[in-house]
Design goal:
alpha+beta; Pnp Oxidase, Chain A; 147 residues; 7 strands
Length: 147
């Protein structure tokens, strides 16, 4: 390994980890079905220790099938700047769909204020339903390039 370039990283304390979660708006959500994995970019909202993921549910998508079968999901946030300094946050936990009063608290105004604009592809907008999930965080680990 004497010819491989590397850079040391250090663990983040809880305060630093919280700052990244509050500052960022997008991440990669990894789902699993037995031995198969499926990862998608998502918009998320973090407030008061709770992390919410907004998904478009068109009724028949691989993402929703994987989501239904996933016991433990992984959400990954990361970045590398132009100098090579980097950071990453990994969260794991179960995903719980918001229903009833919890879902009602995220009306259209709250969704628009809490999440980035919804990215759609070929879907008919009228056919898309928003699904909101809370990632019930079981583990949270952050690493960064030391200052």
């Amino acid at each position: 390994m004497d010819r491989i370039e590397f850079r040391y990283t250090v663990g983040m304390d809880d305060d630093a980890l919280q700052r990244y979660l509050e500052r960022e708006e997008t991440a990669v959500l990894a789902l699993a079905d037995d031995g198969d994995a499926y990862a998608i970019p998502v918009a998320y909202h973090y407030a008061d220790g709770s992390l919410y993921v907004r998904l478009a549910d068109d009724g028949d998508s691989a993402k929703m099938r994987y989501l239904d079968r996933t016991e433990t999901a992984c959400l990954t946030l990361y970045d590398v700047d132009e100098t090579g300094d980097s950071w990453s946050v990994l969260l794991t936990g179960s995903l719980r769909r918001l229903d009833g009063d919890e879902r009602a608290s995220f009306d259209e105004t709250a969704v628009n204020e809490s999440f980035l604009e919804l990215r759609v592809f070929d879907e008919d907008i009228e056919e898309i339903a928003l699904a909101l999930y809370e990632l019930e965080i079981e583990t949270a680990v952050g690493r960064r390039t030391p200052e």
